[in-house]
Design a protein that fits this description.
The structure is a single chain. The chain is 66% helix and 5% strand. By secondary structure, it is mainly alpha-helical. The protein has one domain. Strands 1-2 form a two-stranded antiparallel sheet. The two termini are 26 Å apart.
Length: 82
């Protein structure tokens, strides 16, 4: 993954996290409902936070270059086409 694409994705994730964890949208979860005895607000807060961390980890750990062939068979197929 190119450095520019990674930077753009992280910037978009930051903006999405800022919007999701800001007052107007976070206020949607503020109710008296519970899920298995846990209030909905902290459950949603930690779920969104954890999803953001998991997304960053997934994007930062992907190291496959877009130009690299997936396997030696892909090299042979490309050579056969030429």
């Amino acid at each position: 993954m190119s450095h520019t694409l990674r930077s753009q994705r992280l910037g978009a994730l930051f903006a999405a996290g800022w919007l999701l964890l800001n007052f107007p949208l976070l206020g949607l979860w503020d109710s008296d409902r519970t899920v298995f005895g846990v209030p909905l607000f902290p459950l949603a807060l930690f779920f969104l936070w954890g999803a953001g961390i998991a997304t960053v980890a997934w994007w930062m750990e992907s190291r496959a270059a877009p130009d690299a062939p997936a396997s030696p068979l892909a090299d042979q197929a490309l050579a056969a086409r030429d």
